[in-house]
Specification:
Layout: H1 6-36, H2 56-60, H3 62-70, H4 74-102, H5 106-125
Helix pairs in contact: 1-4, 3-4, 4-5
Amino acid sequence: MQKIDLQQLIGNTLRWGVTIACIIAAIGGVIYLVQHGSEPMPDYTTFSYTDPACHPADYTTVDGIFSGIFSMNARSWIQLGVVALILTPVMRVILSFFDFIQERDWLYSLISAIVLSIIISNSIKGF
């Protein structure tokens, strides 16, 4: 059985993750320009979360992002690119954890597990 080179896999994951995130965000940018490129510049001196034009739930929740993707909402596409960019280093930590276990480096396996548990707990609970 051939041994997987996890260091190469980690490097490729980082490269592909950033590339895919940029492509997704660029698609959102193009959609935004097509849909709103000829509109006058909005007033960015004030911002309100209660403003119905902002619709933060449309692109700040997982359900909102994915429903916006299918309806070709530009903000949802851009936000999906940001989520993909955030998940890229998380995948690196996961792959590093398995790499350290494969190498039987228990100290760094423990450190990777602690970092991963902190990331997951902060993502789920918001601590």
